[in-house]
User: Fold this.
Amino acid sequence: MALLLPMGMLLGGLYSVGKLNKQNELIAIKASGISLYRFMFPFLLVGVISTMFNFYLTGWRVPQSKHQEKIFEEQFTGGAGYTPMSRSNFNLYDSTNRFLFVKLYSEETSTFSNVAIQEFETGQITRRIDAEVMKYDTLHSQWVLFNGIERTMKGDNITFNSFVKKDSVKLGFSVSDILSSKKTPEELSLIDHKNFLDLRKKIVFGGTEEIEVKWHEKISFPFACLIVSMLVVPIASQQRKAGLGLWSEVKLRTNDIMGTALESIPPKKQQRIIKTSKTFLIEHAQFEKMNMQYSVIAIQKKEFVYNYDFIENAFCLNSDIENDTPFP
Assistant:
């Protein structure tokens, strides 16, 4: 949908403005004193409205539809019922000095089993809490640990404290943050996607590049409608000998090829391609600079090339250059 709406605006603008240009209506509009900005105002207005509408679809409606589609497939495709998420043997990094090791998490009961919480200061462990069960209290918005042992380290001294229930541990995430990790970036709304990205940067080391790319895509793609509305008038107002239909087909095929290529390339490879392209452009610029310097030297040595209007009549007086004799 993010690409369908800009393409529709491109086709509509090309055919409408191209039709006016073909019937010489643009010349009449310019002759009547209407400026280009006034003529483009309706296109820009439609572009702004389409951008806002596309922004709403891409940021909220499309992710919600994808999430409902995923639930429907899990419930009805192949007779397999919906299975709640269950994760085992994973780590959570609540902050730079607090780590959580979880043996098992069950979405059905919203509980963590066999949890170990470690706190560090200056590279040394200062406290460790081991609990059999950890649950999230939605009423008080806090985590509660059951049946565990708390160890406190101060130098060489270690103190033990057993507990049946402990609710004084403050963690920087809630159970909803854990549940959101089940969704893919395509299923998250724009706000939830940003919160999920911040959470992953906070509690996980690395591996957030793809999530960040998807978030920027949701923001950047809707603005394609506005960009198309600004470019369609200058493009369609030019005379094309091959016809408007062929010009539109070339644009469509180019967009399809570029879009398919970008979708199939991972983000890390895209960065390598961009880096390689920059290197190629720099080397090409240096090569062109050397050619210009050589051309200046050639002119100083009177190495002339006669150019005529038609390519087939162009020639170079190599013999005169080698003999260093004046041209007739």
Notes: The chain has ten helices and six strands.
